[in-house]
């Protein structure tokens, strides 16, 4: 479980302070499917990044199973992330001039998984997002939605207990989007993976058991 | 008007040929609102790029008002584009470490518009996409949807007769998306701008007078 306690995030922007999150307290329960919605610029990606320990709050605390984690060093956070968290970025952040297969293998490489097992798992994941015929291509040779699917496969590579997905179907037609959603829900059923989905897509939000709305750096609802 | 005649596009990918468009004939009429839909990887972005002369077909012809344009040199195409076409890229393609305002001014700078007039027009456009308070920020300091809105403002800067928009609301909540759509339709009413929208969003597709579906590099419907 992940808990945020009075979390704020202030960015320094052209000499001014921009309060992106203004006091967020949120409990994410194991195995739940949580949708995060809200207008453009409201703070959703920032909230997701902090929840995944990709960045640190300005004030407030973050707990993974009641252990305080926001104060860990960057390398401690990296180790914890690699074991526990899968992240799908809003802009994918695939590694250029690196094949789809190698991109998906990256989290497993980081964990020291042997190459044969890495290949097999990455291949299986690419197939489950409909990308097996393109595994040897670079991101620049793929369409927007194809890149998005590779990013999703990569996030699932190390079987994370927590998947944080930032607009994971934003570049997908409705059929590809449903198929991705089915995949994520199936994995959740099988492994108890917790799913936090930032989305503008009403269909996706509807599937979630719980919906939290971000407005101007604060939470509405629960 | 834009006409595509038996257009194909083949990419060379890891030693193989990938036929992204397999024979597209399409007439885009002045002032119309055309939605381009189809599954991920079907060829929509490729079709849009060729229509905007950002790339050349492998075979086939492209005409702007009955003048053959696909055979022009890169610099001739760049000049024609700068006068006639606004393009919103699926991945925005904003210039890093360059402010939102400077990004929006770019097409006007290219055309030699004097700086005061450039500033005023860019400011007005940023305001119309709800981004005036962020004009001095870099793309990396903006949310996904904020970057998308800056990209839209830039595409409109030189008052193009043809706007080609690749998933222009993919990162926007429904209210921001409607407001962008209203802006585009208003501009179309006033100036007769032709709108071609690649979209996965059913709401956006519904607004279009005409819908064309791309499937595996070919067109269905008309
Ligand atoms: N530069 C490239 N090199 C090789 N193949 C490419 C390149 N660009 C696109 N393709 C391939 O051409 C096909 C069509 O791509 P395109 O980007 O037009 O699809 P799309 O309909 O826009 O998809 P999406 O909805 O996912 O954005 C895809 O199979 C894609 O992988
Ligand atoms: N690195 C940064 N530096 C400065 N400001 C930032 C930075 N990242 C985000 N912001 C600002 O913080 C606020 C929240 O951004 P965030 O990316 O969390 O929004 P969002 O809800 O994900 O929006 P969208 O739906 O458009 O993706 C925005 O005003 C944004 O401009
Ligand atoms: Mg975001
Ligand atoms: Mg595309």
Polypeptide structure, described:
2 copies of one chain form a homodimer. Chain A has 222 residues and is an alpha/beta fold. In chain A, 36% of the residues lie in helices and 28% in strands. The first copy, chain A, contains 7 helices and 10 strands. Chain A has a 6-stranded mixed sheet. A 4-stranded antiparallel sheet of chain A has the order 2-1-4-5, covered by helices on one side. In chain A, helix 6 (174-191) links the parallel strand 7 and strand 8 (194-198). The longest helix of chain A is centred in the last third of the chain and has 18 residues, at 174-191. Chain A is globular and about 45 Å long. The two termini of chain A are 16 Å apart.
**Greatest interface and its residue counts?**
A-B, 33 and 33 residues
* Quaternary status: homodimer
Choose one word for the global shape of chain A. globular
Global mean pLDDT of chain A: 96
Q: Major sheet of chain A: order of its strands?
A: 6-7-8-3-9-10
Query: How many beta-strand segments of chain A?
Result: 10
Task: Name the helix and strand elements of chain A from N-terminus to C-terminus, one letter apiece.
Answer: EEEHEEHEHHHEHEHEE
What is the first-to-last residue Cα distance of chain A? 16 Å
Named once each, the bound ligands are: adenosine-5'-triphosphate, magnesium ion
């Amino acid at each position: 479980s992940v808990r945020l306690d009075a979390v704020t995030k202030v960015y320094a922007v052209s000499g001014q302070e921009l309060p992106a999150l203004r006091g967020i307290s949120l409990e994410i329960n194991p195995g739940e499917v949580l949708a995060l919605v809200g207008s453009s610029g409201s703070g959703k990606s920032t909230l997701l990044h902090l929840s995944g320990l990709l960045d640190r709050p300005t004030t407030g605390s973050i707990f993974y199973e009641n252990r305080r984690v926001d104060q860990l060093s960057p390398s401690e956070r990296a180790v914890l992330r690699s074991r526990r968290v899968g992240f799908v970025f809003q802009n994918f952040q695939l590694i250029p001039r690196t094949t789809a297969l190698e991109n998906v293998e990256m989290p497993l490489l980081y964990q020291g998984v042997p190459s044969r097992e890495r290949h097999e798992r990455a291949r299986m994941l690419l197939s489950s997002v409909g990308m097996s015929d393109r595994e040897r291509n670079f991101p620049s040779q793929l369409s927007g939605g194809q890149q998005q699917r590779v990013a999703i496969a990569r996030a699932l590579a190390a079987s994370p207990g927590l998947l944080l997905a930032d607009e994971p179907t934003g570049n997908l037609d409705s059929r590809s989007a449903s198929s991705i959603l089915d995949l994520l829900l199936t994995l959740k059923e099988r492994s108890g993976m917790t799913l936090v989905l930032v989305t503008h897509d009403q269909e996706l939000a509807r599937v979630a058991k719980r919906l939290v709305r971000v407005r101007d750096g604060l939470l509405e609802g629960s």
